[in-house]
Amino acid sequence: MRSVCDVPHSNHTVCVLDDEPSVLRALGRLLMSDGFRVLKFCEPQVLLDHARNQLVEFAVIDIRMPGMSGLEVLAELQTVSPDARVIVITGESDPSHKAAALAGGACAFFLKPFDDELFLQAVRKAISA
Fold it and tell me: Keywords assigned by UniProt (predicted)?
């Protein structure tokens, strides 16, 4: 069994924003299995409040959120935490979402369900950039 000190990404925290508890659990488990620390948020404003008080190094943001879209969260996060790297995820296959996310500063975009290893590769690449 590995200890936290043996896990390669244990000094990096990923904030995950999704209003679906099952997605939060699954992404949390996936990221933790690769050695990341994970903070889970189910409300956009709570993530943004956190970002105003704590450094956000990396975030995974779902597009469909109540009250505020993930693209709006991305724009606000870029204002309060300009160095944060962001991956945007969605269950809707609308090509304009990908274009808007990437134009808004996201480093990657994934359509749910996505390949876990490709997702982790994108996270690792963004963290090491």
Answer: Phosphoprotein
CATH number at 4-126: 3.40.50.2300
Residues paired with residue 40 on neighbouring β-strands, in sequence order: 16
Enter the DSSP assignment of 3.
-
The secondary structure of residue 92, as a DSSP letter, is S
Q: Are 86 and 102 in contact (CB under 8 A)?
A: no
pTM of the entire predicted model: 0.89
Per-residue pLDDT of 21-47, as tens digits, reads: 999 999 999 999 999 999 999 999 999
Tell me the C-alpha distance between 83 and 68, whole Å: 21
Give me the half-sphere count of Cα atoms (radius 13 Å) on the Cβ side of residue 5. Answer: 0
Q: Domain map of the chain by residue range?
A: 4-126
